[in-house]
Amino acid sequence: QHAPNTADNKQAIVHLFEWRWADIAAECETFLGPYGFGGVQVSPPNENRVIAIPYRPWWERYQPISYHLNTRSGNDEDFRDMVHRCNQQGVRIYADVVINHMCGFGGSGHGTGGSYFNAENLDFPAVPYGSNDFNNCSTCGTSDCKVQSYDDVNQIRNCRLVSMLDLNHSSDYVRGKIADYMNYLTSIGVAGFRVDAAKHMWPGDLAAIFGRLSDLNTAYFPSGSRPFIAMEVIDLGGVISSSEYIHMGRITEFRYGKQIGQIFRKQYGQTLAYLQYIGENWDKESDNNVLVFVDNHDTQRSHGAGGESILTFRDSKLYKMANAFMLAFPYGFVRMMSSYYWDQWWELQSWGLKDSNDWIGPPADGSGNTMGVSINNKGNCRNGWICEHRWRQNRNMVMFRNVAAGHGMFNWWDNGYHQIAFSRGDRAFIAINNEGLWALDATLQTGLSSGDYCDVISGDLSNGGCTGKTITVGGDGRTHIYIAGDDEVPMIAIHAGSKV
Ligand code: LAG
Ligand code: CA
Prior knowledge:
Elements: E1 12-16, H1 21-32, E2 39-42, H2 76-88, E3 92-97, E4 101-104, E5 108-110, E6 116-118, H3 137-140, H4 153-158, E7 164-166, H5 172-188, E8 192-195, H6 203-211, E9 228-231, E10 250-252, H7 254-264, E11 290-292, H8 316-328, E12 333-338, E13 346-349, E14 352-355, H9 392-404, E15 409-414, E16 419-424, E17 428-433, E18 440-445, E19 451-454, E20 461-462, E21 465-466, E22 470-473, E23 478-483, E24 491-495
Parallel strand pairs: 1-2, 1-12, 2-3, 3-8, 8-9, 9-10, 10-11, 11-12
Antiparallel strand pairs: 4-7, 5-6, 13-14, 15-16, 16-17, 17-24, 18-23, 19-22, 20-21
Helix pairs in contact: 1-2, 5-6, 8-9
The structure holds ligand LAG and calcium ion.
């Protein structure tokens, strides 16, 4: 379904990429709950292949070995404990489910949970799956069984995606095994799923699998609640359209992050003024059918879609502005990215520059165990975890979106180029100045009732005072806004919950 099952109608989630379950549980209690985050997308919880060359890349988690909950993030017990503790805080857990395929072809060994597999003769006894459960070269139609042409719908869906063994979802047995796995997760208290590689599965097969899903656990959700579904479909205008999937749930709208990146980077002559029309008024799926994000774990390392336009933590100023826009504007269900750092290593390939370190896995000790997230007394994450979601500007815009929920966009203003402002009904107001050189200096209609408001970009409301700029709105709802071009983060945001 399309509704995210958040508590109190909360409006945004965060992807805690590669975090351990124990750390996520603590984060729900100490940070995500108090700051109004609706949920967490977690890395795939099921057992995966252990990749030694390169050493323990992040992408080994996209190579399933079984549906046992046992990974570098933790075991079954850790996962259950996390789901329970997060739900207690009104923070939902969304699982990334890798159901299109098992691991890459070739070799044999043991997964992160110790289960044996043989990827030469397609044997996964811990599920169990055998060679009959996979598509073969004749159903696929290419000589090496791999997807070769992205112009051929049958290849995209029946061949091996980068050599990974492609499950045959027309099989009732395979559908049953996948549904059992997903139902096990919801029985624990998960609120929904990010469905990996949905484009590589036939919509009819997915519908059959989703039709077998149970309702959510009534310990946490009203009876009859259905799992939230966000399907990973990269539609940049190829032979497969996101419209084939939206009757079943939301799709990951990759056109959004790509365009947001281009606009804030001022590429191809685009301006912030265009943002008024972003969404279904442009070329994207409609509000209720999309999950939107500035970057995700693929696009931030140039996998997926969007190339060099994508904004990430490395461009922190523009990244904060793009996130703030996304969280302020009424379009889609929002997912924020939370990353770990790695050193990039750009090398020239025949098609252009490539980061040869794009495989590097999460911060880990010498034995490959993922490191815990440690947080200093300023609330910043350490040992390689970036925690974009903890940056004040990002964190406070989550509350802005919650406060503005249900109110449309009003009072749009722009200077024709890179300065914009708008309100969300009478609940919230934002102004962004991406000119770089020129100040935003204008008297604008905020839509808000008169009073003093704390700008949640430059500070926080604390003990009735504001640690940043205070904005005074007059009886007519107007205020004078001044944002210098070279401000550290050139925007201001105020809302009904930030009244001093
Ligand atoms: C996704 N969406 O459809 C994930 O978001 C994306 O991160 C996954 O690819 C992909 N689908 C498959 O689940 C990632 C990496 C790939 C990696 C793959 C499997 O982007 O680079 O492939 O996970 O681990 C790697 C190697 C390939 C190799 C393959 C199989 O890069 O060269 O052929 O493993 O051994
Ligand atoms: Ca497939």
